[in-house]
């Protein structure tokens, strides 16, 4: 996914499913300058990490 799409998902009012290597995650913040996204595992806010936006995949 690109950084712009990650920002759209973060701002969306509805839930948009996103995966990181098969793990369902929530987007917490987006650093568009660096192309990085802070995410946490769905159901486990303590499992947070910062990853490149390109590693995220929108689930359709």
Overall average residue pLDDT: 97
What about the largest sheet? 5 strands, antiparallel
Low-pLDDT stretches: none
Instruction: Please give the CATH architecture.
Output: Roll
Question: Topology of this structure?
Answer:
Blueprint: H1 3-11, E1 18-20, E2 23-31, E3 36-41, E4 44-52, E5 56-58
Antiparallel strand pairs: 1-2, 1-5, 2-3, 3-4
What does this structure look like?
It is found in: Spore core. The chain has 60 residues and is α+β, with helices and mostly antiparallel strands. It has a single domain, classed as SH3 type barrels (Roll). Helix content is 15%, strand content 50%. A 5-stranded antiparallel sheet has the order 4-3-2-1-5. The protein is globular, with a radius of gyration of 10 Å.
Summarize the structure.
The protein is an alpha+beta fold and 60 residues long.
Structure keywords:
60 residues; alpha+beta; SH3 type barrels; 5-stranded antiparallel β-sheet
